[in-house]
Amino acid sequence: VQVAVHIRPLIAQERIQGCKECVSVVPGEPQVQLGSHSFTFDHVYGGGGSSPSSIFDQCVRPLVEGLFQGYNATVLAYGQTGSGKTYTMGTGYTVGGSSEGVIPQVMNTLFSKINALKHKADFQVRVSFIEILKEEVHDLLDPNPPSTMKTDTANGGLLRVVPGKPPIQIRETGSGGIMLAGVTETEVRTLPEMAACLEQGSLCRATGSTNMNAQSSRSHAIFTINVEQRRKWDSFLNADTSSLPEDTGEDFLCAKLHLVDLAGSERAKRTKADGNRFKEGVHINRGLLALGNVISALGDDKKRKEGGHVPYRDSKLTRLLQDSLGGNSRTTMIACVSPADSNAEETLNTLKYANRARNIQNKPMVNRDPVVAEMQRMRQQLEVLQAELLCAQAATIPEEIQILKQKVTWLESNNLELRRELQQSAESYLVKNYLKRIQELELELLSVKSSNATDLSPEGEGDVEEEGEGEGDVDVDVVAAKELEHTMRQDCLDKELEELDKRLELKEAEMKAFARPDNVVLKQHFEKKLIELEDEKKTLQKERDALLKELEALATSSDEHAHKMQETYVQKLKDLERQIAELKKKQENQAQLLRQKQRSDEAAKRLQEDILRMKQQKASHFIVQLQNKIKQESEQFRAWKNAREKEVLQLRKEGRRNVYEMHKLQALHQRQKLVLQRKTEEAAVATRRLKDMLEASEAS
């Protein structure tokens, strides 16, 4: 089980009360510290850790992609009341509202993946939305509620049964999975249909106001997405046989994703709850206690090895999450905590709770069609039997294998003899030592020239990514729009700082590449070669001059021997002139390489100047002004948000007062109605008695 911790910022009420942050995050590590306690998790978001916007990409996106491979998944949000579980999960989603939260991003990613794969498979997506309120399972997508007992005032206040669906029952399948009998599963084909189902369930969910949270969730909510995919074979049959997929057995896969928003654990002395609110809190804490017992039993290595009892049946919540905890599912738990020191004890309990959950080991497996799974098993068994048959056939012909081995040995020996003869013939045709040395020099110059050209190739100075200032006009309420605008401003300012840092790092890397010790060694080597070539050129010129003098001396004599010597010297003179020409070409190449090296040194010098200029710019007034602007924007947004939250709290307070007055007037009206009914009945009885007395007096 992967566990992530989400630390929300201090809210306005906590700031008004003077609360301080008591939770700290170790920089660069997924480690949380609370007083003397330290906990390590898989991911930590907020409070100095990673950005909360990356929760979906790092924790939930792999689970959504696993759905298309046939793996079940669960995302579980746990924490005390008011710690931001519903905000993190996005359970309170409304169409046209903010798309923050895990569930809205899951829906977008799911349908994007379906649209990309719809040419390969047919998909069927069904959703269900339930809540567990007072240990009763309620269907949030069912327009017809189950049978209930209501008071019938027309019949003297007697109770009567209002017909409806039978209550939802928890059942176990033949394969050991958990299912809900009677729950509504709505088939959805598009993203707006799934969003409408989520909004309908969110509006029907039970919420209430406590002293710690004005909109506290009073029930555990589970939003389930079932995905079934069946491969389209038409596209493969029309294509070549080479394009057939390898996993031909995976023609039907099904998987489900549970998105669980638990109700927050709470203490009555802090929530000031009484009456129904108090009873709801008792049921919430009872379910979370049962969940904690299950996590403790699964996280204990000793009990797990001994096969100890896991109390899944102590609560309907743990019964529904039986597959998610220790079963066939990939599970991620998001522990939401408050950093305020007034909630330090509840935060510590939440961190301990999450730390125990890290020890749970699930057993996820691919959910295939049973018929296809049996065919796959039989196909594997057939391959094993074929391999055994080949081994048995190979054991019956050892003589042929021995003959083949002897042939291979004879061919290898012949190959070695032929190689030896080839090497001897190559050695007999070697050229003279002087020409060999000239060729080696030419090859060395060519290799050095190519390597220097690759080393001195410009690497592109300062390819800076263009900033994308995405300011979309989102038609949401004022608070969400203001928050989005503030976030985008902060991102733009952060991007400017990151851009300067990237450019500086790029320039420094190029400078290091130019200033490598290899280039210095190459320069010394080329200078040494130039000196050697110059000396050799001078030697050859002296030898040519000497030959010219000898030719002039021999030109005066007419001896036949002198004539032959003259022809020999002329030939030798031509060879020397050719060698001198070749040496001049090599000298020119060396000079060209030195000029390239000089240009690279000048480029390195310019890069050094750019680096110094950018460092000065980073430490200049521009950076200070940018940081001051960021701070000023943050303070203005925080003040505006606090004012808006105060106004919202005031409006909620007035709304609660109006609701209380309305209930009070309704109760007074009901009492007056009952008194009027009783007086009417008494008057009717008195009238009847008077009528009887008048009739008796008339008769007498």
TrEMBL record:
Residues 452-471 are annotated as: Disordered. It comes from the Eukaryota. GO terms for molecular function: ATP binding; microtubule binding; microtubule motor activity. Belongs to the TRAFAC class myosin-kinesin ATPase superfamily. Kinesin family. KIN-4 subfamily. InterPro entries: Kinesin-like_fam, Kinesin_motor_CS, Kinesin_motor_dom, Kinesin_motor_dom_sf, P-loop_NTPase. Residues 1-360 form the Kinesin motor domain. The keyword Protease does not apply. The keyword Nucleotide-binding applies. Its main location: cytoplasm. Residues 375-451, 490-643 form a coiled coil. ATP binds at residues 79-86. This is Kinesin-like protein. It is found in: Cytoplasm. Pfam families: KIF21A_4th (PF25764), Kinesin (PF00225). It comes from Selaginella moellendorffii (Spikemoss). GO terms for cellular component: cytoplasm; microtubule; microtubule associated complex. One of its GO terms (biological process) is mitotic spindle organization. Residues 458-471 have a biased composition (Acidic residues). Keywords: ATP-binding, Cell wall biogenesis/degradation, Coiled coil, Cytoplasm, Microtubule, Motor protein, Nucleotide-binding. Homodimer.
